[in-house]
Amino acid sequence: MKRLLYSCGSYARLLFHRQQSGLKGVQRYSKRVLNAVHQESDESRIKDVEPPSDPEGVDPSSQRDLATPSDQDPLSQPDFFGVEKMTSVRELFEARVHLGHKAGAWNPLMKPYLFGTRAGIHIIDLDKTLRHLRLALNVTGHIAYRNGIILFVNERSQFERLVQQTARDCGEYFVSQKWRGGTLTNSYMLLGTLRLPDLVIFLSAPPSKTAIKEVAMSNIPSIGIVDSDCNPNLIMYPVPGNDDTPSAVLLYCRLFGEVIRRAKEKREETRELGNGEPEKIVSDSEGHKAGGTTDTVNKT
Predict the structure, then answer these.
(1) What is the pLDDT of residue 271?
(2) What is the pLDDT of residue 162?
(3) Burial of 75 (0-12, 13-18, 19+ CB in 10 A)
(4) Could you tell me which residues are beta bridge partners of residue 150?
(5) What is the largest CA-CA distance in the chain?
(6) Mean pLDDT (10-residue bins), the chain, 300 residues
(7) Is 242 helix (H, G, I), strand (E, B) or coil?
């Protein structure tokens, strides 16, 4: 209203000035009027965009619940499960993850992951191990968050009870004895199910490559600890590291078990907050979860 009155008054003065001063004076005066109007509109525009003051008694931390949908999407966050702080190079070194096999018993495909040779033994580059391990933990967390089936595989008798306990603690499945051929490629005849795992974790390279080949043939993502004598090309997410020392295998079990539990806790939090159930992984075939009825794949 003030702006309208100001414009009307200016227009009246403009007509009076035209009668008194002629065309040139009118042009100069009209230019001053237009500049004043533009200046007033700019000041009002700045005032309009000023944020309102926070009301008294409102906690700024309460605004955290107003996150955008992109912030709530786990895939949009690089470290949704906090795997960056789960381990370090020092911890890997203390667990003897860097110790490989003798220099004469190595696979040339592991050369990019080796730091060098000391006393005739290959030393694994722990910087690369840490980078690949964090990637593997992140993949495991996302699959567990979406209610995927995770299978731990280890055929070495000295780690049998450790692998079993790790799988049971996080509510997943395990194979801790010799792999039976056709467990995945002929699962309906051996296990009575068509549902295959969504991820297979090899905590140590199996003596026979049957399990690794079946996982690849079934197009199932795999994570594997590959020592200096292993072929990393057979694993989708290889993690270079020692797979013989108990302290190293114990560290792997603790890390993978912990990230699975974190992912399931995040899933429960999402459900309790009313954001809906996380999108589940859809397999190519329908069926029940593998395990529980045979000795090949176990959960309990």
Answers:
(1) 84
(2) 95
(3) exposed
(4) 199
(5) 110
(6) 44 46 48 51 46 48 40 79 93 95 91 93 95 96 95 93 96 93 90 90 85 93 94 94 94 96 92 71 49 52
(7) coil
Q: Burial, 238: exposed, middle or buried (Cβ in 10 Å; 0-12, 13-18, 19+)?
A: buried
Instruction: Tell me the torsion sign for CA atoms 260, 292, 289, 203.
Output: positive
Helix (H) or strand (E) holding 226: strand 222-226
Q: Distance between CA 241 and CA 116 in Å, rounded?
A: 14
What is the per-residue pLDDT for 74? 82
Half-sphere exposure of 236 (CA within 13 A, CB side): 18
CB count, 10 Å around CB of 234?
Answer: 18
Q: What is the pLDDT of residue 150?
A: 97
Between CA 39 and CA 43, with CA 40 as vertex, the angle to 5 degrees is 90
* pTM for the full predicted model: 0.71
Can you tell me whether residue 1 is helix, strand or coil?
A: coil
Helices within 155-228 (DSSP H only): 160-169, 187-191, 210-217
Q: Are 228 and 122 in contact (CB under 8 A)?
A: yes
Tokens of 298: 């176990």
In whole angstroms, give the CA distance from residue 21 to residue 19. Answer: 6
Q: In this structure, what DSSP letter does residue 275 have?
A: S
287 CB contacts (<8 Å, ≥6 apart)? 193, 194, 195
Closest CA to 256 of 102, 81, 105: 81
Give the bridge partners for 102, in sequence order: 121
Q: Which residues pair with 121 in a beta bridge?
A: 102, 118
- pLDDT the model gives residue 87: 94
